[in-house]
Amino acid sequence: MWSLKKEKGVPIYISIIELILSYIKSGELLPGERLPSERKLAEFFNVNRSTVVHALDELVALGWIIRKQGSGTIVNEGKWGITTVPRTDWRHYLEQNAFAKVDPYLEQIEQLIHSSADDLLDVYTGELPLDLIPSFAFPPLTWKHFLEEEQQDDLGYLPLRESLSQDMQKEYDFTLPPESFLITSGAQQALFLILQVLLQPGDSVAIEDPSFLYALPIFQAAGIRLYGVKMDQEGICIDSLEKTIRQHRIKMVMVNPSFQNPTGKTMSMKRRKQLIELCQNYQIPILEDDVFAKLNFVSTEQVQPLKKLDPENVLYIGSLSKILGSTTKIGWLSAPASVNQQLAEARKMMDFSLSIFPQVLANLALTDNNFSKKITELRQEVEARGQAVFDLMSKMEEWEVARPKGGYYLWAKWKNGDLRQKDWALFLQEGLLLAPSFFFSESRDSIRINFSRVSSHNIVEFKEKLERITEKISLDNSSL
Fold first, then answer.
1. Is the peptide bond preceding residue 11 cis, with omega within 30 degrees of 0?
2. What does the similarity note say (predicted)?
């Protein structure tokens, strides 16, 4: 569609204007339809971006297109001719559904997982395998017990909030009162509420690059602009972050400082303090995702939450889903009381009521006499699996890996540059399902492995599959 015919003696920006006008008048561009980005149009036309900007400015002045902050460039509905049969353009509505846009590679992974083929090895799925999830014996509970439970308010089940407060004190020698916790149905609901209440369409947010946040459609759906900031071995680069803050008027910084998803990196204490100081100077809040807190392989002194360093400026998200399974659907957000109350009010208005069942069960697990013992056993087993996968991959000269300090993700970088589409296809063909780096950033040279799903029973299978894939990629590259 976006093929430009360049005529001798006609300025290129004029040719672009005429092309877009022809599409509008012929109906190939519909009223309210979004045009590709300036960068994409420049690529399509093989011209400088400034040329595209000039053409679009002229079309805006003529009234044919409109630029909306956070929505891009769209065809002006007011300029549209009267059609013979008025009808709703449902295609236009559906094109705006950010939740329907699924990467083709991800679709293939999900299809293979649902096929349940015997030769598949799933190290893609972002949760523990069932055999590792701790089991707790709950006391007999009747239906009446739940109906009579009256200790839930807008912030959630009070005994659970008290247990979380006590756990924070025990783990980090840090007091967060029960009223500073808002219980949510998982970490993503906490994130969704923050986007709806504290940010507006068009606002800019800085995240780590790569980051799992890059893959979430809720930012696009909310009209939030994400700006990735590069990382080094100590975490997010402060100089680059400050430059991004200045250039893009960043409204919030979102980080996953401990056992980062997808890289597994852990931000150093020095870098944590620098991040806090920078955001204090610019008066920008920090959203800290700490869902892997219980799966640390190092002392808690090395992974002190940002929330402890700056309680008033940090929004803290935690979850039990990473250790008790995704169906637990229990997360929490710790923020200043005034913020939590606004978030709770917003949830009530959206009718996102929180069931008492998972909250009561989560509290029973947290207060179980064997909870600490079972989490310690889980941590030891996950660490052993991570060490085994690291040992295996560190011996493969084609891959660059770092020993994980917690969580259950290992990030492996292909040393010979970007992997091509046919290279990625080899993983699917071999039945080794993992997450490619382009799910989390613009890079195409790394893979994320959930090493908790590589046990002593399937590590040989994992090794053989990865070695075959590595050999095929290497041979193919050497023949170029």
1. no
2. In the C-terminal section; belongs to the class-I pyridoxal-phosphate-dependent aminotransferase family.
- CATH architecture, domain defined by 12-94: Orthogonal Bundle (1.10)
Residue 327: CB atoms within 10 Å: 10
* CA of residue 300 relative to chain centroid, distance: 25
Contact predicate 231/237, CB 8 Å: yes
pLDDT of residue 60: 86
* Protein fold of 141-368: Aspartate Aminotransferase; domain 2 (3.40.640)
Q: Which residues of the chain have pLDDT under 50?
A: 81-87, 90
CA distance 443 to 446: 8
Residues 332, 186: Cα–Cα separation, whole Å: 7
Q: Which burial class, exposed, middle or buried, applies to 170 when counting CB atoms under 10 A from its CB (0-12, 13-18, 19+)?
A: exposed
How do residues 201-232 score in pLDDT, each as one tens digit? Answer: 899 999 999 999 988 888 888 889 999 999 99
How far is C-alpha 16 from the chain's CA centre?
36
| Class of the CATH-defined domain 104-126+373-478 | alpha beta
